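Possible regression after last week's pipeline update?

I re-ran a chain I had predicted before the update to compare outputs. Posting the input and the new output here so someone can diff against the archived version. Not blocking, just want to make sure nothing changed silently.
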Amino acid sequence: MKSDSRLSRQRAERRGHVAEYLAAALLLLKGYRILAIRFRTKAGEVDLIARKGDLAVFVEVKARIGEREAIDAVSAMAQRRIRAASDVWLSRRPDAARLSQRYDVVAILPGRLPRHFPDAF
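New output (post-update):
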């Protein structure tokens, strides 16, 4: 039988994946193209990478009880890891020099529609 902590981690991971797909759906409805989900590097990871025109958007998805809690959950250390991963992603793009970039948060809130916070950090 699996330990309680392992089951808890698995449930949290599943909730996180569902939250990422809800956030991706919201961004698609807003006219963004989703380029990557869970982009991981040794430097860090980005939950979603989206694009709209010449704008590359690196999105952190947070499932929290409220909007403020979601935004506050993206610590300075997490921001550094997201920026580092975005630098790796951009370094692999031949069109990177043309792209402007932005860092957003999408809050997944219980019983409510996801909320998009452009240029959150």
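Follow-up from reviewer: compared with the archived run. The domain at 4-117 is CATH 3.40.1350.10 (Trna Endonuclease; Chain: A, domain 1). Marking as no regression found.
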